[in-house]
Amino acid sequence: MIRSLRWRLQLWHALLLWAVLTVFGGMVYFLQWQTRLQQIDVELDRTAEVLASRVRRLMPPPPFGRPPFDGPRSVTAGNTAIEAVDANDRSPPAQTPGERAPGPREGEHRPPWDRPRFPGDRRPPGPPDPQGEGRPPHRPPYHDLHGPPPPRHAGENPPWGIPMWIDDIVRRFREPGGPSSDAPGLELPEEFAELFDGPPDRRMHFLIWDRDGKVLEKSASAPDLPYPGLHFGNNELPVRLIRQREHWREIVLAGRFDTNVLVGRSLQHDVVMLHRFGGILTLAAVGVLGVGLVGGWWFTGRAIRPLAAMTRTAESISVQSLSQRIDVAETDSELGQLAVVLNRTFDRLQASFERQVRFTGDASHELRTPVAVMLAQIELSLSRPRSEQDYRDAMGTCLRASQRMKSLIESLLVLARLDAGAAELVVESISLDQLINEVVELIAPLAEQRRITIAMDLLPVTVMGDRQRLSQVVTNLLTNAVRYNKEEGRIDVVLRDEADSAVVTIHDTGIGIAPEHLPHIFDRFYRVDPARSRSEGSSGLGLAICQSLVAAHHGILSATSTLGEGTTMELRLPKSSTTVVSH
Amino acid sequence: MRILVVEDEPDLQRVVAAALREADYAVDTADDGEEGLYKAQTWDYDAIVLDVMLPKRDGWSLLAALREAKTTPVLMLTARDAVNDRVRGLDLGADDYLVKPFELSELTARLRALIRRSKGQPRPVIDIGEVRIDTASKSVTIRGVPVALTAKEYSLLEILTLHRGVLVTRTMIYDHLFDENDESLSNLVDVYVSNIRRKLGHDLITTRRGHGYIIED
User: Fold this and answer.
1) Is-above-0.90 flag for pTM?
2) Parallel, antiparallel or unpaired: strands B47-51 and B74-78
3) What is the ipTM of this complex?
């Protein structure tokens, strides 16, 4: 069952289908997730940009003449700073307006270039030395060029006259639309605010901090997690960083200004949706697999149906129904061609079988008559006491019948050997003209009885062959020429020497052979006149044996005849020895 | 009883004819189909043994021609035992079929049965008054006592018995008793009849003077 073609096809079909579905399903699943992430990223990006632009609008520009960046800040330092700030800001984000955020402590809000840039920086704090190496020249603050500076609280001006803008911004963040109405808050549009206000598994959060790592603002939805690694790399270049932490997707815009924005979003909901999508995909794949397998089963069944039909027909072909053939519907298809080939084989088998049956029937038929004679004669003789003469006559009858059976059996044996290619030809060089002369001498008395003259025109030709067998062939042909000749007829025997063959023609002036019989005269047991030839002792095998013998010599035996005028037999034997093969 | 044997194999023809003669039949022979048909149409044989393979006219054609005029029982002999050969022969009107080689005893038994059936006498034993005739063993008893009859006497009695109730002419009797080569005189029939009367009683066979003889049913 499992080894049947149909099952094997089905198995391979299933494996292939499964592999294809797995690969494509996996790709679709992966692409879906990537697309979703991209969508989220775009969303986060847009939000971050909006936030950043809002913050920028709020922000006073940083003072000109920042010191050149001289090396990345220590990650550890940055982290520590942020975490420290975070720890300070764990208070509930909704603060009552007017309540001041804890003010900057003395010395903490120095300009960045004044702060220690690395552990062990021994530069004394203080205003930059305008003439110092690598320091940009002092320039008027941004406010001097672009309108009045924002109001500031007394005593908060740094010693070098730069406004404490960081603090200012912090204040503004903390008090959006608060009492300092002169300062615009971080006014987010309604629909924008909604982004941060959804269910916790899909809402966004944001975080804004300064270049020192101090958190300036964060949304209420921001997860209560440390934010490590918020370093900005090269401050000269804007940094846009997308990262994923646990189930949060975050985008960090840093390094453009002194405020950095992080917008994140929980992926929990998307993961759930992705899993759901995966489930649907799996169900669809199972469905496709099922449909594919059922369809494949049906299809293979359809494809091998002609095979099954052919098997049935071939099985049912037996001795009784040899004429059955496979129904050839589509001769163009491979199966149709197979059917055609098989049918041809069956044709040959049937012809061969019928020939065999006919041969066996004919042979047994030929044996039946002498056996019937013997049986009847012996039964009659034994039925009562007989005279000695009666017994002698009976013995004579039995002897004739036995001799007939013997010659028939010998002929059959010769044919069987020739058929099997087992006839042993003793190949030697034969002078064909001499051989014909000998045979004609043997036949002469028979011919004289009927006053038939035999004329010979023989060229000396030598062929390779079996002397006895060739002699048998010529004897048989000449005997026929005498037997079927008219009284006082004539036989012409001609031996010609052609390019590569010796040709013997034996022409008689006999009764001839009718055209309808001519194609069959070499068939076994074929008799033009069954009764006549049988009474003359012919078995109907003579010419068949002749032809088989000539074929064993790779020669050709053919006949032409005109009814009532005579028959010409032509025997063509190859001269070169290489073409004669001893069996 | 007179039988025609049509067979072209001379040895077989001779043996079969000899065997049938020994079984007290009058036997004619023919060597080919034309001769066989001529004889079969000329004489009223009690049965014909016909070979299929014959020169000039084969057995089937002979049978077909014969059946146009005669209902003589025909037993066909053939060397072919293919079923369709047998069917063809029987369809053409052969009454029985025998495949070569055959046993002589079977041939004679089949011929006896054929002849009996053709005379409307399926039983082998016929009772006429006190006389009982067994056609199988060719023996006659009167009141249970066996009576010795010669072959010709028995044949004559059998002819009359098988045609009982019907007038049998002297010519008919002569044709059935003697074969074509027999030069016997027709008044031998009267001699045989008187012999039978002597052995089985005078009442058995009635003489219709100038016509022939009859056994009253």
Assistant:
1) no
2) parallel
3) 0.76
